[in-house]
Structures are given as C-alpha cells and as structure tokens.
Request: fold
Amino acid sequence: MNHGSYKKMLRESIHESQKCQRNWDLTKPMDPDDEDLIVEAAKNAPSKQNLNYYKMKVIKNREVIEKIHNRTKGFGPIYTSYDPEIPESGSYSPETDEGQFYTNSQVMANMVIAFCKDEPTLVREENDDYSQDRDMAIGIAAGYVNVIATQLGYATGCCKCFDDKEIGEILGDKPILLMGVGHPDKTKNRRQHHTEDFKFPTLKKYKKIDTQYV
Reply:
C-alpha cells in the first residue's frame, strides 16, 4: 500500500503539471541530468505499436529560442475581455480579430522541445498517413513531460499557435507542438507574459470532463 504522503505528492503533481507557465527565471540553469530525464520521458512515452511517429528538437540555444518566440504571435484579442463568469465572453466573433495580439511566452523557457513529424520505420499498411496516431503519440509524450518535469520541480507550457513554416526554416523541420520547460519566475503570477504587460486568462472553468463509471 502506498503511503498517504506519496499519494498526496502524486495528486499535487497532477494538478500542478496541467498549468501553463508563461514566464521564466532564466538566471537559474536546469540540471543536465534533469534535462536528460525529461527528454527520456518524451522519447519513451507510449505510442501505437511503439512506433516513431514524431521526432524532437531539444532547443537550449537562447538566440534560437527567442527567434522561435518571435514567431508565436497569435494570442488574443479574442480573450482580452474574457470573464470566467460569462461563457460568451470567451467565444469567437468577427470583431475580435481587431486588437493587440501577443506572443506565446511559454516558449521562452530554459529549454524548448519541438515535436516534429516523423515517419515510422515500420510500414503497417499501404497509404496510411498515421496522422491520428501521430497526434495521439505527441499528446501522450507531452503529458509525460508535464508530469516528470513537475515532479523534478520545473514548470511547463505547451504552444500550438505559431508560424510553422518560419519556425521550420529555423529548425529544419516544421514543428507540430512546441513545449517550454524550465524554472518558473516565482516573483510573478504564472499567467503574466514573460516580456509584455499582459496577463493570459485562464479558461479552467470551462473544463468539465463528463466521467461515467460503468
């Protein structure tokens, strides 16, 4: 039987790891062994038939990270007037295209993992594009990174809103998902933009997972 304190730690890891960190303490380096363990988690996450549907670019070069960050401007203004008590305030309307857009500063982290498309080395069937299996595999890998990084004391943030063509030219591969991992800036609210005067909203109240036990 697991000790109660261990279960408490697991529960805290679950709830902490699902938060998106938007700012970072770049004065503190990550432990190389921790970096290796996080990458190992991403590489060894389950995938359909254990095949390689994705490959990864692990980016620690600050200049490259900033170039990537500059190509993630796409947040807002759809959420700038968001009120968690009014569901319609977070909905899209044509008028919301006008206004200030912000970069997704979760990719300004100490380390960024770019999940890119790969073709499985084993061909299962002719003309199979593997797209559903790939999306599922990357999602599971990102989940592994979230939990393992959190248990090591780091924060994470996923980003899907970016110019994949321009970032693909930087990395040599078009990314499907970008994921920042690093030390959170504990002097700021986690939703405060890393470089701009903007606080990202949270839509957590919308997340209602219908769960039925059969």
About this structure: Strands lie at 54-59, 111-117, 155-159, 175-182.
